[in-house]
Design brief:
The chain is of the alpha+beta class. The chain has one domain: SH3 type barrels (Roll). It is built from 1 helix and 4 strands; from the N terminus they run αββββ. The chain has a 4-stranded antiparallel beta sheet. The chain is globular and about 30 Å long. This is DUF4314 domain-containing protein.
Amino acid sequence: MSVRDYPSKETVLRLKEQYPPGTRVELICMDDPYSKLKPGDQGTVSFVDDIGTVHINWDCGSSLGVAYGIDVIRKL
């Protein structure tokens, strides 16, 4: 991902509103061949950073974030 691929400030603000800390989510898909997370895994949002990564404390013990525009989650 290059700098020009980062989401706009407006998009990041929208993500922070959509996924406030404590929001429960489910993983739909993740483009990370090294992750042990799988579709259907659930977790709790910790925070959204300034490049739109949604940081999640997964129920399985992982704390891997989901990358904006690459990985997909849904609110529960």
